[in-house]
Design a protein that fits this description.
six-stranded mixed beta sheet, 10% strand
Length: 391
């Protein structure tokens, strides 16, 4: 008698089982996505730390070579055309010390600007003045990057240097200036801070005004870099207790919606940066205004720490890291296109919770955006006698 083999039963997912599996996978992806994003941000922040370390070491290697610190490019920060400038930015000066000697050599570092630009002595300021009204420090040397006499100057300024750009910034190096193509910068050296630090004063924690008044002068603390006295010995608070450079990320050409900004301060060559027709330059160059997003411009690389004093809301002008961080582009009372709002001449980053900073000893730290703004002021001051190692 022949026995037939039992038939093997085929199993299949029911619709309910399939939906359960999909739901489980979706839940796992939902749980993993924040972890993946956090890991990516950790990697970006690590790269930002490395960038700022290289900048700090570049400054120290410059000092070792020349026995003086690089100048800040922007010698002070009055918020107006009375601001005094050198010819070249601080990033420009340290290029040979971050493996960018070839870019450095494209620029003119020795020409007497008095001869090149017909500068005249300005009795009121004690500096030189260009016909445009721009003030130039008496120790300045070289030709400006937007000088049309040499196309290499423009070539230098349009070099994208990754060391100067934080990878967490939504506006990358390529999208920073879609009109003229200048290389961007997400870090700023700090020339000074004029934040009111007198307890009980109505302006405590805000910018002291007006600029140049006795009250303003009494509140100003100078940063580590200085045009008149660039010696390391002036940093009497200790380099480990003094801010050298901090993030000011996201600045871009005015055509970049929400991120773009410009400066009304005139360049040596003439046109105001507030003029949308002449702003920037085609090849090889022209009389453009100050470009607050380009590493090669002294007005971008160095700024004062003052807080969002141009906010139309008097109650929200406190100086702090990451002021008006949300929404993207800033609120109506302090849009990012306005000077000192968000990523425009103030400490600002796209890292959660704070900003990366390089101290005067080239160490790199993450400063929480919950730190009191007056504490940050005294971290800026290199010789004010106020040391804040625990921040």
């Amino acid at each position: 008698m022949r026995h037939s083999l039992p038939t093997r039963l085929r199993r299949a997912f029911t619709l309910v089982e399939l939906l359960v599996v999909i739901a489980i996978i979706g839940t796992l992806v939902g749980l993993l996505l924040p972890a993946v994003q956090a890991a990516r941000e950790a990697a970006r922040r690590s790269q930002c730390f490395n960038n700022m370390k290289q900048i700090g070491l570049g400054v120290h290697n410059y000092e070792s070579s020349y026995k003086k610190l690089p100048n800040p490019g922007q010698c002070d920060s009055t918020g107006s055309a009375t601001t005094v400038y050198m010819i070249h930015s601080t990033p420009t000066q340290i290029l040979p010390f971050i493996e960018q000697t070839s870019v450095y050599n494209l620029l003119d570092h020795s020409t007497d600007p008095i001869v090149a630009y017909g500068l005249t002595a300005n009795a009121a300021s004690g500096h030189y003045a260009a016909s445009s009204g721009a003030l130039v420090h008496t120790k300045a040397k070289g030709r400006t990057y937007d000088d049309p006499s040499n196309a290499n100057f423009q070539k230098a300024g349009k070099t994208k240097i990754e060391t100067f750009v934080c990878p967490s910034t939504p506006v990358g190096n390529d999208g920073r200036d879609p009109v003229y193509g200048y290389g961007g910068i997400d870090y700023m050296f700090i020339a000074l801070s004029d934040v009111m630090s007198t307890a009980g004063d109505p302006l405590y924690g805000q910018r002291t005004v007006p600029t140049g008044s006795a009250a303003w002068v009494g509140q100003v603390v100078g940063g580590m870099l200085n045009c008149d006295n660039p010696k390391m010995s002036r940093v009497t608070d200790g380099t480990a207790n003094t801010l050298l450079c901090i993030e000011d990320a996201g600045r871009a050409h005015p055509s970049v919606a929400k991120y773009g900004a410009l400066s009304s301060r005139p360049s040596i060559l003439g046109s105001s940066g507030a003029d949308p027709v002449n702003f920037g330059s085609a090849l090889p160059g022209s009389a453009g205004g100050r470009r607050v997003y380009a590493w090669i411009d002294p007005d971008a690389a160095t700024n004062g720490y003052s807080g969002p004093n141009n906010s139309i809301s008097p109650g929200s002008r406190l100086a702090q890291i990451n002021n008006y961080k949300t929404p993207i582009g800033g609120p109506v009372e302090c849009p990012w296109q306005t000077n000192n709002c968000g990523p425009n001449d103030e400490p600002f980053s796209f890292h959660p919770g704070g900003a990366v900073a390089t101290m005067g000893d080239a160490s790199v730290r993450f400063i929480s955006d919950s730190v009191d703004g007056v504490v940050v002021k005294f971290l800026v001051g290199c010789d004010d006698g106020r040391q804040n190692p625990d921040f």
